[in-house]
Structures are given as C-alpha cells and as structure tokens.
Amino acid sequence: MSIIRKKGKPRILVVTPEITYLPDGMGNLAHRAGAKAGGMADVSASLVAALFEEGADVHVALPHYRRMFHVEVGRLISEELRVYQNRLAEDRVHLAEDRCFYYRERVYSRNDEENPRLALAFQREVINNIIPVVDPDLIHCNDWMTGLIPAAARRLGIPSLFTVHNIHTHDLTLAQIEDRGIDAAEFWPNLYYKRQPINYEETRDSNPVDSLASGIFAAHFINTVSPTFLDEIVRGDHPFVPAAIRSEMTGKRLAGCASGILNAPDASYDPSTDQALVARYTDADHVEAKRRNKLTFQRRCGLHEDAAAPLFFWPSRLDPVQKGCELLTNILYRTLAEYPSMQIAVVANGPHARYFHDILQMHDLYGRLAICNFDESLSRVGYAASDFTLMPSRFEPCGLPQMIGTIYGSLPIAHDTGGLHDTVSHMDAAAGKGTGFLFKYYDDAGLKWAIDEAMRFFALPTDVREANVARAMRFGKQTFNHSVCAQAYIDIYRRMLKRELL
Fold first, then answer.
1. Which one of 9, 120, 204, 351 is least enclosed by Cβ atoms within 10 Å?
2. Structural element, H or E, at residue 412
3. What is the pTM of this model?
4. Long-range pairs for 291-296 at CB < 8 Å and ≥24 separation?
C-alpha cells in the first residue's frame, strides 16, 4: 500500500455509518444507499457529492444495510453484487458485509449494548478489506463508530480526519476488539485507554479503550460540527463532556489540528421547491405563501385557523436533557395567557411530550396549543407556516432546525450556545440586522425574554417585519448550504495533503 500517491489525484475514503444519498456514477449500488439517523448522514452525502461532482477521486465506506437500501432480503442482488465484488477497486461505494447489518431498519440499535458490536463489525471490514483495496491517501472518519480507524490509519502512514458530531462513546477492551476480528495488536499504542498502559499484555483484558477519544487522539486533524461547540469543550463549559475528550480536543486545538465546520440542512429544505408545501415561495414572495401554509398547518394540527396569529413552532425531539423543552413547559401557560393571539405547535416525539399534553388538557388550550407526533411532511409545512422556530437547547453541537427555520422565514428563538451561536444573530429590525432572537442565560426567564422580543418584532409595522424576514431568508439560503459546508472540508483535505485534490 502506498503512503502517498505520487502522481494523479489523491484518493479520499469517507467512512461513515450513515448517509442520505450518493450521486449517480459512484458505482452499481449508489442509487440504493440511504441510511440516516441524524445530521451526519446529510453532511457525509453532501461532502461525497461535492467531491465527486468536482472530479475528485472520492470513495465511501458504509455498512451494507440491505433492508434500508431496499435490497430484497434473502437475495444477494445477483448481478449487481457479483460485479461489485469482482470490481471493488473500480467502484466508489464500498459496503461492509456482515449479517448484523442486513436486516436492520435503523442505523443504531435501541439496545445500547448492540451498538458496539455493530461498530466493531463495520470497522473490521473497513480495516481488513476496504482500506487495502481502496489504498487511500486520506481517510475521513465520523464519530465513535469509526474511532479505531484513525489508529489503524496512523500505523499504515495514512493521514486521517476525524469529525466529532456528538459527544457519545463506548468503552471496549482490546480483547473484545480482537475477538471481533480486528488485529489491534498492530496499532494498540495509537488508542486511548482509561489509564496509562504499561504494555500490550497487561492492557489487553483490563484497560478499556475509549472509542471517541481514540479517534480524536489518533487522527491527524479533527473537527466538530460548529466552531463555538469546539470552543466550549476546550473551555470546559459542559460538565457532561468527559475529561478525556476535552483533554484530547484541547491538545489538537493547541497543535493547530482542530477546527469547527457547520453542518447544513439537506438541499430538499428549500421553500421554493419543497413538495410538502401547499404554496411554495422565495424571499421575494413569501408573505401570501406563508399565510396559505399557515392556514393549512393550523387545520391539520387542530389550531384555530387565523393567518394573522403569531405561530411558534417546535420541531426538535422532546428531550429535556438537551433540547430545552422543560423551559417551554415551565412558562407555557402564562405565556399563552399573556398573549391571547399566540399559537404554539409541537411536531415532535420524546419523553417530555406528556407534560405538553398535561398542560393542554389541564388548561383547555385546544385551538391554541397543538402537540403532534413527528411527521416529516407536517414538519416541513410547520416551518413554512410558522413565524418563529423554538430552539432553546441547553447545548447544541450544531443544530439544523434553526437553519431550516431561517431559510423558510420562521425566525429562530434560541439559546446562545454551540452551533446556535454560530448560526443565529439577534434581531435589530431598525438597523436591518440579525436573523432571530438569542437569550444568553439558560433558564425560564431567558426563554421568556426571547419570546417577548419575538412578539415585539411581530408587532412592528408589516412592511418592516416582512423586509426583515426576507433578508433573513436570503442570508439562510446563501449561508446554510452544502456547498459552503463541503468546501470547508475540502480546504482541510488540501491542508492535510498539502496539494490540490483535483
């Protein structure tokens, strides 16, 4: 295997457990591949597509989720699979084969004990079979499920980029790793352990490897999915971030080998083309179209049909650990009581949903408060219908709803943290600046203040309000897109390889 290809375009291998789509021309199975659990799938797809469309030699490795790829279960897709196996080096899509992937309907298991086994099967195939065939010049890994690969890549002399999407990890011993078919003895010094290892023998059974910390430790360069979230981790703002993760990220940051790159929403989130909307629109003609979408959304959710009502939309999962939904329920009744025309719609699932239902029933808020299970089509109409998108997260590595809301003309109300800080600026309508409403302190009063600010904005003269919404929409479309996101990754690749990709 060559360490650096001396002639021609450098070959990039993107390793990801999830992806939304692949461009035509990337191999026999490209049109089938699609498995998503979060923003990682979108950014992986956009990056691969951008590289491929520009003519770069890009390859992608992902698990072979036969059921999710709509491959008939029990049939080995005959001709396609035979061609794929015989011509792997000429193909751009490299599927990790293991029975544990074939019958899955979701990327991650609800049983957290199963996820490490899935990760080890995936990494076994990448390390043992895919890397030797692809012979990459650079490997781009994503999150803890690929955390062993940078260590193996370093052993082979291949530079690697490791993207941290979420602060989640699993601990595994070398014995567990090797029992799954990965020869960790080849690269064990490049892994991150719970304590300082003495030697391989004493470490193998009793000194767990931290998957996420190992990826950060062994990679040549790392990035988080927003600049501010990286700053917050290094500063120690979040007590939930393990000391090992903070230490390794700090080391990479001090060495000039860490950055933050914002994710972007899927390109289908465009109000001018979104087929879920009853009326499509741009910043130039948003006013009447948003009124029509609002009436439709109100009807579907059971809200009073009133196009003039200020409508606040909650699109994120109802997780009180991260998303701030408890702040909203704490102030929900008194806020609706203070503003008789206000409506709030929740289109989401999660453990905190029962509190919204309790408030709805206890205070008889039918027609003004709606709680609906998540539905992709309804959620899209919600962005188009609403005036404001609620995003009061306690912490946020990146966040996409605040970007989507801005693009659709639903101004975000957000806690000033992580990716929200990087994507929302506080509204100054008189000066024609800002895209939403930021509150600094994570508490009930902070969210209430931001909602009050939004209501003051809503009460402005119609022409002033509409002009500022249109301005925010233009900013969102220009800024929150995959071209900008992909270019930032390409710039890192060039920096790591010290040469052009094309």
1. 351
2. strand 411-415
3. 0.89
4. 293/381, 293/384, 293/385, 294/385, 294/386, 296/381, 296/385
